[in-house]
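hey can u run this one w/ xanthosine-5'-monophosphate bound, need the structure tokens asap thx
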Amino acid sequence: MKNELILILDFGGQYNQLIARRVRECNVYSEVVPFDISIEKIKEKAPKGIIFTGGPASVYGEDSPKCAKEIFNLGIPVLGICYGMQLMTYTLNGNVARANKREYGTIDVKIDNTSSLFQGFDKENKFLMSHTDFVETVPEGFKNIGLTESCPNAAMENAEKKLYGIQFHPEVNNSVNGTQVIKNFLFNICNCSGDWQISSFVDDSIKALKEKIGNKKALCALSGGVDSSVAAVLLSKAIGKNLTCIFVDHGLLRKNEGDEVEEIFTKQFDVNLVRVNAKDRFLNKLAGVVDPERKRKIIGEEFIRVFEEEAKKIGTVDFLVQGTIYPDVIESGLGKSSVIKSHHNVGGLPDYVDFKEIVEPLRDLFKDEVRKTGLELGIPENLVYRQPFPGPGLAIRIIGDITDDKLNILKEADSIFREEIAIAGLHKNINQYFAVLTNLKSVGVMGDERTYDYTIALRAVETTDFMTGIWSKIPYDVLEKVSSRIVNEVNHVNRVVYDITSKPPATIEWE
Ligand code: XMP
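ok here u go:
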């Protein structure tokens, strides 16, 4: 059975992934696609509804992303958000104007709660507005269903054609009951039934993988992280021993992690596991490399090379399995949102790959959905809820060039930090926490001796989507204990600092 689908046309807004998540949270499957997807492709996908995202452009800009008028005549409901609403207006011959002043913030929006979009809402609601252009005149056939003090058309509808526009962002938490607006669109207007569930994803995926791979052989890139572990177990359920997992230990994992991964997959799961100890090889390639993007590319490429070599040893292998997930795909700029960092498992793929095909069974899933999939597959909770760890590993937590000595310093410091966070019982509240070896050396004093040693930075963030996050307010006594243990127990560290920057403007990782 085909899933109900909501297509989200990406006009470059920063909250696009959130829109997709909100839709899925309502048990309706959603996909983010480039704004210039063809009408034929839309028809082929047969979505129950379409959402236009926001975006930084102005409809009057020369290169601004546009859409075909035909999209509004397909009989498919459309919800335009922010820029999406303005584009709908512009395309259907309404008027978009530029305000003198940007309207920004959580603002009172007066709405017409007889509209299906606002069913169950009070007449006044607080939603996040963030715009300069606004709809001055709604297109013919539309009526106004919302306004703010400075925005005359904060919401509009053409109920007959099921076309809706909202100037505010329902997808962000600042919009009180924002998700309900999305729910109303999905269930009142698109008539979705909301039957998409992880268990159906698991069953469908196993079936599809069986069909696709048949009796051929597949290799899985196992890193020990949540994503590749879930991908590996999913594949092993589909094709059993025709799957071989290769665990490339690039030496950039956390303390003892290599051995732990080996133990889990050989003792808890009956998976063909080959562990390749390739630390020297990776460190040689990385010697002297300082640029973060180059580090990522080198590690990504070397990964593939190691796989190619191992694949040759194993015999004919047709498929390479990777644990790429949806945010990787979108953040790597395969959609139209701007590229922040290239993720080694997507953007860094070399041109020449010695496999027939790459299989990415989790490519459409958000992190929380990957975890649910893991639990559904019977993977133990402690592995499923492991904090995320980047593919390039500690290489992007050592600022500047990487050496074996620096790696050892970082592993020890990081292990102390994690240990103390667990002892303090904070591991469930902090979504990602780790140590960074800054390239900074500073003067200290140990006993009566002057020291000139490294500074370790501690990073801890609270986030649900890893796209945005706030720095965690770890109690001072815990920080104090971590700091004193690191300086006392780890050689060549004489200073510890705590990173108090949220994302944005900083990213979670330092590189
Ligand atoms: P940033 O640093 O972009 O990180 O705020 C967001 C999340 O992504 C992880 N991350 C990576 N994961 N390959 C990965 O598989 C990578 O190259 C990579 N870079 C960052 C990061 O740990 C955080 O959870």
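Residues 296, 340-341, 343-345, 388, 390-392, 432, 466, 503, 507-509 surround xanthosine-5'-monophosphate (CB under 6 Å). anyway lmk if its weird
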